[in-house]
């Protein structure tokens, strides 16, 4: 028996996906602002303080503390609740903000706790708690690179996260170690041990770029990995858009444009 709301869902699309959540009367889904796509008539939208989970029913101070932690991961104090106040089943849809995949996580089947990237959460059944995963070591917080202040999803309901590019799910055996770029982690189950490791050596330090620090994930547990972190995509677009190639009287400028596919 689940304590969180029990919702049905369908995921549509390939590269730009959205998830359609089906709500029975009085059932509620929660989502970050900006993820809403469309909904049937008979669904009521309401801004709520925090995530509306049972962990926040401990008075004003508890709610303030729980919601306040979300600021540390760049999220709003408030979320939006979508409740079916009509008769019969109603549907509400949430879209991924960039090309990639939406991952459905049944927390009841995954040990009740998932650690994920701070911008990965899309929506969930009401009752799922969305908070911050405090780092166990000082080095982890200081050298997290693309975001090793992580979010945690807790409960026994459905939660949905989104990832960039292609997504791979990997099962780690007890003691098995995976070394991975911090930005390529979408999430992992709560029993996976994680840390940040420094790649030693003068070459790596001077010329390694992204490779100076990486994450280590040790099993047992499940890990979800993305091929295109949004931070990497944004960095590439920014550097490409602000780069000025000298073209007047320059043969190299014209050749460079041809190689880039820009023509003459």
Layout of strands and helices, then pairs:
Layout: E1 8-12, E2 18-23, E3 28-31, E4 36-39, E5 43-49, H1 60-69, E6 78-84, E7 90-95, E8 100-106, E9 113-116, E10 121-125, E11 129-133, H2 138-142, E12 150-154, E13 158-164, E14 167-172, E15 177-180, E16 185-189, E17 193-198, H3 202-207, E18 213-218, E19 221-226, H4 230-242, H5 251-260
Antiparallel strand pairs: 1-2, 2-7, 3-6, 3-10, 4-7, 5-6, 8-13, 9-12, 9-16, 10-13, 11-12, 14-19, 15-18, 16-19, 17-18
Strand count: 19
Give helix and strand order, one letter per element, not per position: EEEEEHEEEEEEHEEEEEEHEEHH
For CATH, the homologous superfamily is named as Mitochondrial biogenesis AIM24
Q: In terms of per-residue confidence, which ranges show pLDDT below 50 for 5 or more consecutive residues?
A: 140-147, 247-252
**How far is the N terminus from the C terminus?**
65 Å
Query: How many domains would you count in the coordinates?
Result: 1
Largest sheet: 6 strands, antiparallel
Oligomer description: single chain
Topology-level CATH name: Double-stranded beta-helix
What share of residues are in beta strands?
A: 35-45%
